[in-house]
Design a protein that fits this description.
The chain is built from 15 helices and 14 strands. By secondary structure, it is of the alpha+beta class. Strands 10-11-12-13-14 form a five-stranded mixed beta sheet. It has a four-stranded mixed beta sheet with strand order 1-8-9-7. Strand 8 and strand 9 form a beta hairpin. Helix 7 crosses helix 8. It is globular and about 65 Å long.
Length: 399
């Protein structure tokens, strides 16, 4: 039977599955961080550091002020429990899911599922790539700067040396992985010298088995999801996807559902919670799992979230690095934030109301901004006079 679910319940199910609606722990430690990261299944990495690099933010949104070095220890410490690979985008994932990504690594080796330029480089310069791999095996951990020679492409993101292209191909193909990061630059090493032996020795699942497992992780992380939502979570290929979903329905891991206003097949995870209400407040990274798929965000919250980093300044509607504010079960505001580290303040460059803003929105948002400032090691919050919530937000901050 197909379960009929209201949009309001679907929203609560999605929030609960993502770890919202629970009081922050008095002290967030290793156990709470690992539980949160494993609940999400994948955490997107991004280099923009206007406020904080995005991979630090999902745990803050759900746990409050946890120690930031926890993430660094778990991801890049001596005994990592997470690893880097292409999950959603560049991502951190629990290390035990590494075998589930081997099909993607194998496809990369065969010239599929990888950026066109890197794919072509892998075909045309395999002898050189093998030389780079042998050098890493001999030398140990390396960075892109260690292989900076060779012609470069056009200016910008693609201005990579041949050495950097070789490292990226090896990373995609699973021969090397990130051992640590220095000033956010990847330090690469052989995968077998980074991933724990217990994980490396696990059998490699078939593509079908691995993709079913990834869809199951995605479903549990979202609670309720359309077919498009499920495929986007780990950016799975179209080929065979419908078959994998049908197999999960047959085994009872997914249950068909319908939600008013949602288009396309919809599914509920077998153990999804159905809370009567969700309470709490959180600032969300624009790359947070809850809102990274913009179509899903619009369905859940009836708001359009647009990343405006690459939009010319005069055309931006809300600002450069805008964090939506989640108030209980609604997105009620957006703030364009910047950590002014020399001045020691969290600067709110603009603050905007959403249609579902409440009389308490400014006060609750002010509280979260103060919490974020302290977590970032800043002494206070300053609000510029831009946006229809700016004045009320400034008044709500402690004097």
């Amino acid at each position: 039977m197909t379960e009929q679910i209201s949009p309001a319940l679907a929203r609560r199910m999605a929030l609960a599955a993502q770890g919202f609606g629970k009081p922050h722990p008095k002290t967030a430690g290793t156990r709470q961080f690992r539980e949160t990261a494993r609940r999400l299944g994948v955490i997107q990495i991004d280099s923009v550091n206007v406020v904080s690099r995005t991979h630090y933010l999902p745990a803050f949104s759900r746990l409050g002020a946890y120690p930031r070095d926890l993430l660094e220890t778990e991801a890049w410490g001596r005994k990592p429990t997470f690893f880097e690979y292409w999950g959603h985008e560049a991502s951190l994932m629990p290390v035990e899911t590494q075998p589930l990504m081997r099909w993607r690594m194998a496809r990369a080796r065969d010239g599929h599922g990888i950026w066109t330029g890197i794919n072509r480089f892998g075909r045309e310069r395999r002898d050189y790539i093998d030389t780079v791999l042998a050098e890493i095996e001999r030398r140990g951990p390396v960075t892109g700067a260690d292989f900076a020679s060779g012609p470069r492409g056009k200016p910008g993101w693609w201005e990579w040396s041949d050495g950097k292209r070789a490292l990226e191909w090896l990373f995609w193909a699973g021969f090397i992985t990130t051992k640590t990061r220095r000033n956010f630059e990847r330090v690469y090493d052989l995968t077998e010298r980074v991933i724990p032996a217990a994980v490396q020795n696990r059998p490699t699942p078939t593509e079908a088995d691995a993709q079913r497992a990834l869809i199951r992780i995605a479903a549990e992380a979202m609670g309720i999801a359309t077919s498009a939502d499920l495929r986007d979570y780990f950016r799975l290929p179209v080929e065979g996807f419908k078959d994998r979903v049908a197999e999960l329905v047959e085994e009872g891991a997914l249950m068909p559902a319908t939600v008013t206003g949602w288009r396309g097949p919809t599914y509920v995870a077998a153990d999804a919670r159905r809370p009567r209400k969700v309470q709490g407040a959180a600032l969300l990274s624009p790359f947070d799992n809850l809102i990274w798929f913009r179509d899903r965000t619009a369905r859940l919250f009836d708001v359009r979230i647009r990343l405006e980093i690459y939009t010319p300044a005069h055309k931006r509607a809300h600002g450069y690095y805008v964090l939506p504010f989640l108030e209980d079960e609604a997105i009620t505001a957006r703030v364009d934030l910047k950590a002014e580290r020399q001045a020691g303040v969290l600067l709110v460059q603009a603050a905007w109301r959403e249609p579902l803003a409440t009389p308490e929105t400014a006060q609750r948002l002010a509280g979260e901004l103060v919490r974020m400032a302290r977590w970032l090691g800043l002494s206070g919050v300053e609000v510029k006079d831009r946006g229809d919530l700016a004045e009320d937000l400034s008044d709500a901050l402690p004097g």
